[in-house]
Design goal:
Elements: E1 2-7, E2 12-20, E3 26-35, H1 37-41, H2 48-70, E4 79-85, H3 89-106, E5 110-114, H4 115-127, E6 133-138, E7 143-150, E8 153-159, H5 165-175, H6 182-190, H7 215-227, H8 233-265, E9 273-277, H9 284-296, E10 300-302, H10 306-309, H11 314-325
Parallel strand pairs: 1-4, 4-5, 6-9, 9-10
Antiparallel strand pairs: 1-2, 2-3, 6-7, 7-8
Bound molecules: adenosine-5'-triphosphate (ATP), magnesium ion and fe (iii) ion (FE).
Length: 354
């Protein structure tokens, strides 16, 4: 089948067309992403109302561009998938309504996709990973370690008890007066810095449970920054590098334990696989730390290209594709949900916001 996917849960307006090829692999026919960074930059973060308006203005054109890039008309599309949660309600409503209207007008099935499922399945989209695998989801709103056992079958092994890792990058950037969004800007500054100059904590390191905590790291960074004020460019670069190294080592420590637990659970799997998803997954230092960890554990790291780590429509179309193939489409009155944990066992309620 050929699926049109729509993503509007945060500050990217995105649409894509993904198809299952005859050889069984998924093919990304198009993947169009319009970032709203410029609209939000002056506010140092995403403003929900501005985001929703921008989605309204952009979405029709983005969908048309996705179909044009794929060289397809709507007649060649078999189902419409749109993110219905979690995320900012205004944006979710725009994407869900648009998807539902196209589905209704064309008589096509509709799939309301969990944004986090899109992230979780993206290593299958990029590399055709088989279930089960371990997933590190590190994005603007989430930091989780998940066991992905099948479509809709997710076990959360750990999550952040305070800030998400992307959020910690964004707050670090703000503190150091770097532009929003923080991740890429912190990474660029870190490349010019000395990661050993400032001693920052590795929160939760050595603890048995698989949770994350990043607010202590952020606070430690703030105290060091204040102690060295006024900061010159080299200080900022060194702070970014030290922060990024602390983040990478913290994540690697959690993953070491998660891989050990995966081995206990699946002794028959000779080479466990760790998939990475979410915008922070694009960070080269973090990828390198994960790669080293996987190598020493005899595991394989699958980190999709940066464009598939960050928010995009292809991951939503792909989640829709797997759901269509499993016969799990949704009624047109399926509701958007601002909160929607991936490991929730019950199916989403129909017709109610919850
Ligand atoms: P969620 O998926 O949890 O709802 P989101 O969709 O906003 O949140 P993503 O778009 O997946 O999150 O990721 C955005 C986050 O990734 C931002 O916090 C951004 O700073 C961070 N990020 C992007 N690129 C990098 C990078 N190179 N290094 C570190 N962080 C990065
Ligand atoms: Mg985003
Ligand atoms: Fe996301």
């Amino acid at each position: 089948p050929t699926i049109l996917g729509i993503e509007t849960s945060c500050d990217e307006t995105a649409a894509a067309v993904v198809r299952r090829g005859v050889d069984g692999r998924a093919i990304i026919l198009s993947n169009v992403v319009l970032s709203q960074i410029a609209e939000h930059q002056a506010f140092g973060g995403v403003v929900p109302e501005i985001a929703a308006r921008a989605h309204v203005e952009a979405l029709d054109g983005i969908i048309r561009a996705a179909l044009d890039d794929a060289d397809l008309g709507l007649g060649a599309v078999d189902a419409i998938a749109a993110t219905i949660g979690p995320g900012l309600v205004g944006g979710l409503l725009v994407g869900a309504m648009t998807g539902k209207v196209i589905a209704a007008a064309r008589g096509l099935p509709f799939i309301g996709v969990n944004h986090l499922e899109g992230h979780a399945l993206s290593p299958r989209l990029s590399d055709g990973l088989a279930y089960p695998y371990l997933l590190l989801l590190v994005s603007g709103g989430h930091s989780q370690i998940l066991l992905v056992s099948g479509l809709g079958d997710y076990e959360r092994w750990g999550s952040t008890i305070d800030d998400a890792l992307g959020e910690a990058f964004d707050k670090t950037a703000k503190l150091l007066s770097l532009p929003h969004p923080g991740g890429p800007n912190v990474e660029a500054m870190a490349a010019k810095g000395d990661a050993t100059r400032f001693a920052l904590p590795r929160p939760m390191k050595g603890e048995a449970r698989l949770d994350f905590s990043f607010s202590g790291l952020k606070t430690a960074l703030r105290l060091v920054a204040e102690a060295h004020a006024p900061l010159v460019d080299q200080d900022v670069a060194d702070l970014c590098a030290s922060f990024q190294r602390a983040a990478a080592e913290t994540v690697a420590d959690r993953i070491r334990r998660a891989l050990a637990r995966f081995r206990e659970r699946f002794p028959e799997i000779a080479q466990p696989v760790l998939g990475v998803a979410g915008g922070v997954g694009a960070n080269a230092d973090i990828r390198a730390a994960l790669k080293a960890e996987c190598e020493s554990a005899g595991a394989r790291l699958v980190a999709p290209p940066a464009a598939l780590c960050a928010d995009n429509g292809a991951m939503i179309a792909y989640a829709g594709l797997e759901r269509v193939e499993a016969g799990r489409t949704d009624p047109l009155d399926v509701a958007v949900r601002s909160r929607w944990p991936l490991d929730e066992k019950s199916a989403p309620l129909v017709g109610h916001g919850r």
